[in-house]
Amino acid sequence: MGVGPDQSITKGPNQVDTIRVLLVEPSIRVALIHEDPQDNMFLECAIAAHAGFIISGDRHLRKITAFRGIPIVSPREYLRLAQSPHGG
Predict the structure, then answer these.
(1) Contact 4, 21 (CB under 8 A)
(2) Using one digit for the tens of pLDDT, what is the confidence trace for 5-37?
(3) Coil, strand, or helix at residue 88?
(4) Please, is 61 exposed, middle or buried when counting C-beta atoms within 10 Å of its C-beta (0-12, 13-18, 19+)?
(5) Which of 30, 55, 74, 78 is most open to solvent, judged by the fewest CB atoms within 10 Å of its CB?
(6) Is residue 58 part of a domain?
């Protein structure tokens, strides 16, 4: 179950204030993750969306740490960054 662009969610104490959804169709193919090639789609979508972060707990993605300047962080790390005085 996902959250669409016109849907709202209940905010809990450890959730971010806003969820934005952007549907993209990647035009660049990536073949960086060989252990689990389906994970490459997240890198492709991040490029197409001009993402500021890739938020994932997936071990293959987390092993990379950043892709084309896009930091790859765990959900916990992202919440920590988003709640810091400098923002995420």
Answers:
(1) yes
(2) 555 455 565 555 666 778 999 999 999 999 999
(3) coil
(4) buried
(5) 74
(6) yes
Distance in angstroms (rounded) separating the CA atoms of residues 79 and 88: 8
Does residue 24 lie within any of the structural domains?
no
Burial class (CB in 10 A: 0-12, 13-18, 19+), 45: middle
- Cβ pair 57, 74 in contact under 8 A: yes
pLDDT at 88 over 70: no
Concatenated DSSP letters for 5-35? TT------TTS-S----------S-----SS
Q: Is residue 88 part of a domain?
A: yes
Answering whether pTM is above 0.85, one says no
How many structural domains does the chain have? Answer: 1
Any domain includes 87: yes
- The answer to whether the beta carbons of residues 74 and 55 sit under 8 Å apart is yes
